[in-house]
Amino acid sequence: MTKKNVLDIDAYTLIDNSWMEDSLCLDENVSERLKEIFSKYNGWNKSKSSSFVYNHENTGAVKQYHEIKYDSFSDENIRLLGLFRYWNMINYFYPLKNYMDESWDKALYESIPLFKQSHTKEDYHKAIYQLTNRLCDSHTSLPATVDNVIFGKYRPLFRMININDTLIINEIRDKNSNNNQFRIGDVILEIDGQKASYLYDSLQEYVCGSTKWSNVRFLCNAVLSRRDSLTNFTILRNGDTLHVVSLNKTAWELNQDKQKRIKQGIKRQLYKWVNDSVAYINLESATFSNFSRNYRPIKHAKTIIFDLRCYPDVLLFEKIADYFIPENSTFAITTYADTDYPGLLRYSRSSNYVGNKKYFKGQIIVLVNEQTESFSEYLTMLFQANPNTITVGRSTSGSDGDVSILSFPGGIKTIYSGIGIYYPDMVQTQRRGVKIDYIVEPTIPSVINEVDLIMEKAIQLANKKL
């Protein structure tokens, strides 16, 4: 694909350097010096010995080098230096900058006083996440929600979801330890004496998702993040108000439990038959080594439902491309920062042509939701290169693509999406999520009754095909 077949190159320019000509704010010497610095570190004038950032073509990991690391943030000037470093990295190398809701210049102006006044560790962390939160990038909220300074390292043994301003439990994470204390369908009213709705609203300064449902996911997780191993909940169950004490686990422990479950699932049968013609396979425990043996028994099904409401093994890409994608398919376009030319994005095919002449000719239905994130979204796009694919669910994470890492003084690591991911028609996926043919959103009755509306819709569509 040549450049003229995509968008005009102006769509890939991140900066406007006309401010360097501003005679009201800059005298002539400063203006000329700024232009000289910018020119010196551009293109062929840029030598490695004088460079501060680099990446490899078509990869998003923009890295800094020759930058001094600061273990302490106590000095106001060092805090401001960290702010300016981050602002410049986003300004010149963030592939989604042009999709921001507000001016990145405004973000700098409003952040300066916050960083100047951040004398405590908590205030400093809050200032950082108030800044990174402006990107509305699901990737940026991942470090924030495990930051023990602001949110605490403990979590109850359940997850919740916000449906029409009702915070309701929709998943028990550790059924063995829960002892039926909390139940799916319980409504969370208060947490340690604070209204849950107030906590939900107040934490929007520090975490957010790229899409509606990823935003709900991050905020609910932040609300449930506690500093103590015990939490007092006030809940509503079947019309009764109850007070329940939660014995929490750390986020790390809960993640280890999840990884253990996934590993145990690798050796088990991953597929099941919905009926004689429709098969279902959950890709959570699917790997490069076990996928073929789970696919062979169902390869003659008229419809296969793939559950991608999870994060599968990245090596699965090759198997999916070989079994399900038509030969010579292109399914994604990538934009990435050209670190030789600050402020310029370039584009390329996200991968070489993929597919197989003997690809699966039946119907494919892919299930997605906010847990379909990053590589899961990329894999969904790959499935969608098959013309017989239908996608069912609600908005995905909107965080497709690799990440870049940047540390602030004091060792606070932040991440952001390092590359832009688009469909071949240049429809963006970041901040939107993947394309969905049938949008299915949860209801309070469906949560209480543990009805998987997305799966129900998929089965309905599959049966229509018979």
From TrEMBL:
It holds the Pfam family Peptidase_S41. GO terms for biological process: proteolysis. GO terms for molecular function: serine-type peptidase activity. Residues 258-441 form the Tail specific protease domain. This is Tail specific protease domain-containing protein. It comes from bioreactor metagenome.
